[in-house]
Amino acid sequence: MAINVKSFLALEESLTTRLLNAWTKKSASTFRKIDTALKNEEYGDAVKLVDDLDITKTVEQNEKFITLITMSAALFGASRVTKSVKKSVFSKNKKPEEVQKAVDLMKLGLIQNVNDDIRKSSLQLIANAEDEGAQKIVYKAGSAFGRAATKAAKSGINTAASLQTSRMSVWGFTIEAGALGILNYSISEQLDNRICPVCKNMHGKTYSVDIAKSYVETLLRAENPNDLKSLAPFPKQDKASLDRIAKMSPEELTASGWHIPPFHPLCRGILRKTTDIPDLTDINARAQEAADRGDSNIINALIATAAVATAAQASGV
Predict the structure, then answer these.
(1) For residues 260 and 271, is the Cβ–Cβ distance under 8 A?
(2) Cα 152 to Cα 170: distance, rounded to the nearest angstrom
(3) Would you give the DSSP letter of residue 188?
(4) Helix runs in 40-96, H state only
(5) Of 5, 23, 88, 129, which has the fewest beta carbons less than 10 angstroms from its beta carbon?
């Protein structure tokens, strides 16, 4: 039975809340010290204290919870395919190797990127205080420094949590689908007033399970979390880009890495199984067009799609 989508979306929220609350509690005394330094116009001392806002210990101390949420996201993806999570391929392995890789990658990303966000935001506020007068800033905002640093930390943690749960949901879906012989999936977006133009366009498009599985496993093998920006680039949201995306074929979207969510931070797209089968005649025609253009990426994507169609026909799906 598929896990409720609202429950899935709550996973990233719970991860963000857990990490942010733990870090904020740990940093409270440093916030007070920096506010005091700013009130006394001791800006150099305030800058030195910024290094104490490191999120590393918070991340390390919450590794078990990060692992729990990561595994839960994978199980959610699997639940979109199987009738019973208890009979899922994951029931045989409490923590697959890929889950630990995803956890390690997220931890490294949090330590690198959230620390950087916190430091930049903190140093900017201190610089503003020195330029405009600390007494005025602190008086207007109360604990101005703590609020600014917490806002920066929340943004970074929330983005990391969203990407983690979304990608692991995709991974769990493709592993389960592959085990059950399901060849294709479609993108299912939350069609409400919060949906972005990119996700609205992606809704309902059909792709190959095998291709998605291979792609997401490539992402999980990344050594540096910042490499994901080039391995899985998000589509741009400007008008020209949106017009181009609307005209792209599934193979072109696949070649661009836009065949699985997330399509942006906090994306709510998920996968659902489908019995739609690509048409071989249409695939061959598009392959010839791509060959005429010399577009090797599209040709490779079409070859993979043709393999799925051929396997489907051979199995009588």
Answers:
(1) yes
(2) 28
(3) E
(4) 43-49, 56-61, 63-79
(5) 5
* Packing angle, helices 63-79 and 97-109, rounded to 10: 130
Q: How many residues does the chain have?
A: 317
DSSP strands (E only) in the chain: 184-188, 206-208, 270-274
CA–CA distance from 34 to each of 31, 58, 92, 294 (Å)?
A: 5, 20, 50, 59
Neighbours of 252 (CB within 10 A): 20
Cβ count within 10 A of residue 134: 24
Q: In what order do the strands lie in the sheet with 184-188?
A: 206-208, 184-188, 270-274
Distance CA 300, CA 115 (A): 39
For the chain, report the end-to-end CA distance as a whole number of angstroms.
Answer: 23
Q: Which residue has the tokens 């007494």?
A: 135
User: In tens digits, what is the pLDDT along the chain, a chain of 317 residues?
Assistant: 455 677 778 888 999 999 999 999 999 999 889 888 888 888 899 999 999 999 999 999 999 999 999 999 998 999 888 877 677 788 766 678 899 999 999 999 999 999 999 999 899 888 888 877 655 555 444 466 788 889 889 999 999 999 999 999 999 999 998 888 888 899 988 877 888 999 988 888 999 888 999 999 999 989 898 898 888 999 999 999 999 999 998 888 998 999 999 999 888 889 998 865 555 555 566 566 667 766 665 556 556 555 555 555 555 55
Written as six digits, the tokens of 96 are 């697959």
Distance CA 196, CA 237 (A): 9
Structure tokens given for 95: 């923590």
